[in-house]
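To the team - flavin-adenine dinucleotide complex, inputs and output below.
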Amino acid sequence: MRGMMGTTFPDVLVVGLGPAGASAAASAARAGARVHAIDRKHEAGKPVQCAEFVPAMMGQQTRALNEATRQPISEMTTFVAQDKYSEPNFIGHMIDRAAFDAALVAEAEANGAVCAFGISLRTISADGSVTLCDGTTHNPRVIIAADGPRSPTGRAVGRVNREIAETRQITVPLLETLQSTDIFLAPDYPGGYAWLFPKGAVANLGLGVDEQCRHQLKQLLADLHARLVAEGRVGADILRHTGGAIPVGGCLDPVVEHGNVTVLLAGDAAGLTNPITGAGINSAVQSGTLAGRAAAKVAAGNHLAATEYRDDLEDLFGASLERAVERRRTLLQKSATGIEPTITDLKRAWIAFPEYWAA
Ligand SMILES: Cc1cc2nc3c(=O)[nH]c(=O)nc-3n(C[C@H](O)[C@H](O)[C@H](O)COP(=O)(O)OP(=O)(O)OC[C@H]3O[C@@H](n4cnc5c(N)ncnc54)[C@H](O)[C@@H]3O)c2cc1C
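Output:
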């Protein structure tokens, strides 16, 4: 694979080794491609930037879940103003996200992908050759852009997530037994919501809002934390801080022909996270797996595989993302005009309520 000094010619270069990239590297290597995968982090999955909930159906997607599951979730409870609604058909798992990402990378390596950490993408030239921060140049046949919501790879080829929610999360002691994911909706959380997700003796308490309102995050989260401390639900100590961006504008076109290379976008880089819930692990694993399979075929000369990948994403995620984008934009526009959203407005923009699913 190594040609002239510092130059490699893999079939597939995967940028990013989160759930999308690791799944892509595994499936491309399993399909027989020579795969190089890189991540700018020094260790898989760390630092964690996640509330760590995955739906029960994830079990069908990856064995990594077996190693990473920490607690079952049996329902979702939504708090709107003074009211509380329980949704029992919302089962899933709380995971250790760092362990999950590491298990996916181990699977990619077991399938033959070469995975390197502490390496970031520097540039992609007009002909499609890639320069990394270590000075090496790569001339892959296919690049998989799996480098997250602000994907530098996507940006280099003209695919940018333009609508973003920003989040802030703390991990706190949990003073009660909790088996539900708790959701807090409020007019003063524009374009987002707050969550309390249990993980054994601790919980992830977080809040997301539209990027324009990011300056409000710290105070809003401190207020919610104080309220839950006063209710005796969580402790006052803060054990960990995290946060990060979530793409909320829906799916980008996931295929780009750039010079001599085909670029396939997957996961957050492709805008596949649900704009209402912020959930994106499942779609990252699913899209990554499909992107890897398509990349191996494209590298072997089957260019139709890229078009099929685009169609597969549309079939899998198109309708649900379209609804979520519309619901979020409608609610946000109302806030932007200075009219405080009503409880009915809030319920129409949350998946637990029939109003969300109505026409
Ligand atoms: C606070 C928060 C809470 C969340 N909670 C949940 C949840 O409970 N459940 C859920 O399903 N989803 C949740 N999400 C969303 C979920 O984390 C993402 O959808 C998911 O991580 C997407 O996976 P990915 O592989 O596409 O991207 P990422 O996990 O972001 O991985 C991208 C990788 O690319 C690497 N990278 C970036 N730039 C470069 C570069 N130039 N060169 C090399 N590598 C690069 C990064 O280091 C990173 O490891 C949450 C997000 C946030 C911010």
